[in-house]
Amino acid sequence: MEKFTTLTGVAAPLEIVNVDTDMIIPKQYLKTIKRTGLGKGLFAEMRYKEDGSENPDFVLNKPAYRKAQILVAGDNFGCGSSREHAPWALLDFGIRCVISTSFADIFYNNCFKNGILPITVSPEDLDKLMDDARRGANATLTIDLEAQEIRGPDGGKVSFEIDAFRKHCLLNGLDDIGLTMEKAPSIEAYEKKTATVHPWL
Amino acid sequence: MTARTLYDKIWDDHVVDTQPDGTCLIYIDRHLVHEVTSPQAFEGLRVAGRKVRAPQKTLAVVDHNVPTTDRSHGIEDPESALQVATLADNARDFGVEYYNELDQRQGIVHVVGPEQGFTLPGTTIVCGDSHTSTHGAFGALAHGIGTSEVEHVLATQTLIQKKAKNMLVQVDGTLPEGVTAKDIILAIIGEIGTAGGTGHVIEYAGEAIRSLSMEGRMTVCNMSIEGGARAGLVAPDEKTYAYLKDRPKAPKGAAWAEAVRFWETLRTDEGAHFDAVIRLDAANLPPIVTWGTSPEDVISINGVVPNPDDIQEETKRQSKWRALEYMGLKPGTKITDIALDRVFIGSCTNGRIEDLREVARIVAGKAVNPNVNAMIVPGSGLVKMQAEAEGLDKIFKAAGFDWREPGCSMCLAMNADKLKPGERCASTSNRNFEGRQGFKGRTHLVSPAMAAAAAIAGHFVDVRSFG
C-alpha cells in the first residue's frame, strides 16, 4: 500500500448527502476480477450521459476539477454496499482524500486499506472547505496527516481526529495481514481455548 | 461483574489481542464468500504465497452474478462466467466448500448460511457483503467487510476492529394485520435516518421482535446497514433453536445440548448500558412505501409524497428535490396513485419461504395487472424446492408471475434482471439508490405483501383492505 504523508491538490465539491457506493461505482463495473482500472467507472451514472459521452455539468468533468485529488462531500459519504471497488475507483481516478461530516463504517475502513485518507470534520468546517473547493484550481488544499491538519488557500487551518493505529499504518504504508501474522501465537492459543470451551464450532 | 449487553458478550468472547489505542484483533468463526468481492482477495493470497487458515470455517457460494434463467448450459455473459469460474477455481485451490450455480443448496449467501446451520448464535460471521447483518437474527455478531478484509480473514481468521457502541431498538406492542417485519425496519430507518446507526451495533428487542418468526427477524437485521449500523442482533430463543435443530451444519447430539446451554446465556444483562435507545410501538405502524432514493425516505401507504421545501437544511433539501426529480414524482401525490411497471419479489431481505407464502396468499386466484411485469426470485434452491412442494409456484404462474432460479437478481441488477430507464418498480429488496436496479430505474421498497397487492392492482394499494 502507498504511504500517505502530505497531499496538496485540487479539491472537488460534491454537494450531495448520502453519496452511496452504487453512485461511486455502479454494479456493471463489479464484474472485474482485478483491483485496477476502475477509474473510468467512478461516478459513471452522473459522469456520463446515456450515449456514453461526458456530462459537462458533473463536477469531475469540469476543467478545474479533472485532476482533483481531494473530494469534499455531504454527510454520510459511502453508505450502502461493502464493495471495495468504491475506494479502488477513487484511487484509480487519482483521489487520495475524501472530506465529509460522516462516513459509512465499511467504506471508511476500506479507504485505509488502500492508502486513501477519509477525514471527518464538523458541519461548520465542511462549509468552509466546500467554499474553498468551489474556487477550483485557484484554491488547493494541503492535507498533513502527521499534524492532523487541513490547510486552506487563505492560511486557514482545520484539524481532524484519527485513530492512532490507522494513522500509523497509513503514514508507513503498512500491510495489515503482515502485522496480524506476527500475532499467530495468540491466534493459535485462542483457537485451542475455543476448541475446549465451544467444541461444536 | 458489570452488566453487559449481548454485543458486549459476543465481542468479549472473541478478542484475541488488544492494542493500547483500543484496536483489537477479533476471531472470526464463520466466513461466507461469494464471487464478486472475493477474486482480488484470493489473488492477494496467491501473490503472497499464503493459505486459507481455516477452510472448514469458510463457505463459498455464487449469487450476485448468476442469471435467474436456466443455467444448465452455462452462463452466457463472458464477464459473469469468468467471475463464477474464478470462484470455483479459488474454492478448489484453497480447499473451501463451494455451492455452484447448479447445486440445490446454492442461493443468496445470507439465505444459505442460516439454511445450512452454518450461522449459529454467539458466533462472529463476516462476508464481503453489507447485508451480512442478516445473520444477527440468530444472535450472531455478523457484518459486511471489504475485499482487503476478506483477504485478511482468509489468511488469519481474524479481523482488526475497534468496538462499536451499543444501540437498543425496542419495538413494543403487536403488529396489526397486514403490517410486517419489513414495515418495522423501514419505520426504524425512517426514524433514525440512514446514518443514525453509524458506529453502533443495534440490538432489536421488545414484544414485536420476539413475536416475529426467524424469517421476519432476518428481514429486520438485514436492513440494519441501511440505518448505518454494521450489525443488528436479536437474542436467541426457542424459535432460534427450533429453526437450527437438525440443519446440516448445526451441532448434533450431546454437542447440540451443550451449545443450547451456552446460547441460553446470550442475553443482555439487566441494567446493561446502551449508548442510544430508540422506542417504537408496533401497534401504530402502517404498511410503508419509500418515495425517494434513500431507504430513509419512508411514508405510510395512506400518505402523500412529501415536500422537500419543508426541510430546513439546504444540502439535504436539495438532495431530496434531486431524489423526487429522479423518481419522477411531485410533492402531494397520493402514494396509492403511483402506477407501476415492474414488481420484484426476492432478495436476502425478503426471498425466504415465509415471504413467498405471504405473496401466494394474496395473489391466489388473481391476475397480475396487464401493465405490470412481475417476477419472483426465490432466495435459494432449497426455498424454491420448498415453494414448489407446497404448490406456490403454480399459484404464482397462474397469476402471471415469472418464477425464476435463485440468486440476488434485480436487487442489485448485476445480471440480466434490471429495470429500463424510467421504469418504476415495487421491490421487496433493500436499496432504492439511484441506478440500483438499473440505469435510471425507479425503486420503491415495500414488504412482500405490499408488492404482491401492487402487482395485482397495478399501483400501490393498502394491503390491509385488499381482498
UniProtKB/TrEMBL annotation, chain A:
Keyword field: Amino-acid biosynthesis, Branched-chain amino acid biosynthesis, Leucine biosynthesis, Lyase
Pathway(s) per entry: Amino-acid biosynthesis; L-leucine biosynthesis; L-leucine from 3-methyl-2-oxobutanoate: step 2/4
EC number: 4.2.1.33
The Aconitase A/isopropylmalate dehydratase small subunit swivel domain, residue ranges: 1-123
Any GO BP annotation: L-leucine biosynthetic process
Pfam families for the chain: Aconitase_C (PF00694)
GO CC annotation terms, alphabetical: 3-isopropylmalate dehydratase complex
Catalytic reaction equation(s): (2R,3S)-3-isopropylmalate = (2S)-2-isopropylmalate
UniProt GO MF annotations: 3-isopropylmalate dehydratase activity
UniProt family annotation: Belongs to the LeuD family. LeuD type 1 subfamily.
NCBIfam families membership: leuD, PRK01641.1
Role this protein plays: Catalyzes the isomerization between 2-isopropylmalate and 3-isopropylmalate, via the formation of 2-isopropylmaleate.
Description of how the protein assembles with itself and partners: Heterodimer of LeuC and LeuD.
Name of the protein: 3-isopropylmalate dehydratase small subunit
Source species: Chelatococcus daeguensis
Taxonomic lineage: Bacteria, Pseudomonadati, Pseudomonadota, Alphaproteobacteria, Hyphomicrobiales
Gene designation per UniProt: leuD
From TrEMBL, chain B:
Catalytic activity: (2R,3S)-3-isopropylmalate = (2S)-2-isopropylmalate
Role played: Catalyzes the isomerization between 2-isopropylmalate and 3-isopropylmalate, via the formation of 2-isopropylmaleate.
Family statement: Belongs to the aconitase/IPM isomerase family. LeuC type 1 subfamily.
Pathway annotation from the record: Amino-acid biosynthesis; L-leucine biosynthesis; L-leucine from 3-methyl-2-oxobutanoate: step 2/4
Keyword Cell inner membrane: no
EC code(s) of this entry: 4.2.1.33
Alphabetized InterPro entries for the sequence: 3-IsopropMal_deHydase_lsu, Acnase/IPM_dHydase_lsu_aba_1/3, Acoase/IPM_deHydtase_lsu_aba, Aconitase_4Fe-4S_BS, Aconitase_4Fe-4S_dom, IPM_dehydratase_rel_enz, IPMI_cat
Occurrences of domain Aconitase/3-isopropylmalate dehydratase large subunit alpha/beta/alpha (ranges): 8-458
Protein name: 3-isopropylmalate dehydratase large subunit
Cofactor: how bound: Binds 1 [4Fe-4S] cluster per subunit.
Matches recorded under Gene3D superfamilies: Aconitase, domain 3 (3.30.499.10)
Cofactors that this protein relies on: [4Fe-4S] cluster
Keywords assigned by UniProt, alphabetized: 4Fe-4S, Amino-acid biosynthesis, Branched-chain amino acid biosynthesis, Iron, Iron-sulfur, Leucine biosynthesis, Lyase, Metal-binding
Transmembrane segments: none
Keyword Ribonucleoprotein: no
Record: residues binding [4Fe-4S] cluster: 348, 408, 411
Pfam families in alphabetical order: Aconitase
Gene: leuC
Assembly, per entry: Heterodimer of LeuC and LeuD.
